[in-house]
Amino acid sequence: MTTRSDSLDRGIAAEGLRRDFDDLHAVDGVDLEIPGGQIFGFLGPNGAGKSTLVKILTTILNPTAGRATVAGHDVQKQGGRVRQAIGVALQDVGLDPLMTARELLMLQAELFGTPRGEARTTAERLLVTVGLDDVDPKKRAGAYSGGMKRRLDLALALVHDPRILFLDEPTTGLDPASRAAIWEEVRRLNDELGMTIFLTTQYLEEADRLADRIAIIDRGRIVAEGTPAALKRQVGDEVVELQFGSSEDCQRAHDAVARVAPNRQTSNRDLRLYFGHAAENVPELVRILDAAGIRLQGLTIERPSLDDVFLRVTGEALEHEVDEAVEDATVAAQARS
Amino acid sequence: MNDMLLLIGRSLRNTMREPATVLPNIAISIFFLFVYNSGLSSVAELPGFQGTYLGFILPVAIVSAAVGGAGLAGQTLIKDIDNGYFTKLLLTPTRRLSVIWGPMIASAIVLTAQVVLVMLIALALGLEVVAGPAGFALVVVLAFLWGMAFAGYAAFMALKTKNAAAAQAATFAFFPLIFLSYTFVPEEYVTADWLRWAATVNPTTYVFDAMRSLLNTGWDWVSLSVGFGVTFGFATVTGIMALWAARGATKMS
User: Fold this and answer.
1) Which of B88, B250, B252 to probe by mutation at the A interface, max A CB count within 10 Å?
2) What is the pTM of this model?
3) Is the ipTM of this complex over 0.90?
């Protein structure tokens, strides 16, 4: 249970947040209302504006316009208070390669005002937490592997028991085992300590597994927001995926099934159709394709994924190339609904 | 204050871990001292020369140690910016200026240690400081301030370019200043007009003058005032430049 003041204390709010770099609107009018205690996933492709937004919320970049409060403090006017309340692990880790993990953790704790003796205890505890306690204590951070650096960087963000934790693409470039370890830790921090977690990611699976609520950002704007389940329901209850041998076949099929499946989108050589009940429409679909002489290579029925949501609201799949006509159609459809 | 001390301590410890960043600079200064002192000491026999040649050439070794040591401040900042630790520090409640002043003051401490080492070697070679222990201390203070002035310049270049090679090159650009002065012989023996002109506009000349007066002739208040005045002026200019660059680098507005 969280009370109202608790929620403000641990929450994040933004209004009309904008950041321009010359002609580029990296963040273009973002509004946010994140209550305390949530894991909030911020999903978007490379260059969508995720990191810029994190830098503004964590006080290291000024917005061009708009305002934001983090833990109840204004990010521009009360930067010091915001920094005292938050822990941050940016996409590019920030470690002094000449220092050992213990030295880095102790210095970080002391910079947050922890007395030296206590800082030592904190360092030892966090090394256990992130699974680096059995590393040679003399080993300097510069000699750590990528995954170890990421874990140490996460530990540095936790030295002062922050109320809000910002994680900018915490698992990008990590192997599956390290990724799973970070997921587990994120969930534990949220469950046990009630820490609010603001997480950016380009992995749909990561957002789906961890986040209570998700916002999808594209070209600096939030294009969809809600719980993962609600977002998926927006596109339909079930998906029929049709696979074709060529993108031309796929495009012809896309036009041919318009009457039966008004909700649909193509991604490369796959056509995805959204229905309330998929199975009852399959015979009709097959007949239409047969009549049009389009050869079908495969057909699957599945639940919508966040990928479908993403494709629908941004007009682009995270990893695939997309037909531009579909993008226009889906964005227009989204705007109408 | 505590965060500043923590960050100074960290920079000093890092310097000890990478002795290669300071050893060449110390070696060059000591090299200057030995080579010029033994090779040019007959200059002291010229008519009108006051004091010893060791006392005359020592400021060259000191200023070289100070300028080289100051480059370290810029290098430390660039390393911090490159490896992301600078941003990490900006994300703590640490005051912004500590993040920049920490490495700068640490470099100044390292530089002062180098200067003292060079001066101790000179004492071992038989140097007698005419102005006494207080004069010795004042030479160290002047070297420290001159070094800080260069550290400000090095930090400015580091924060503006964010490029190690560019900042390094900018620091080296100041090495010729050491030689465009009355470096090896007193003013009255320099006949080339261009060198006399260069020495007059070169602030290093006045630092040499002030140090030489303390080492070789005693308390010369005119030389001291001009030397300290030029040094303070130079340090103020580079200090303002560094602060201005720091504002941009830490607020990122």
Assistant:
1) B88
2) 0.81
3) no
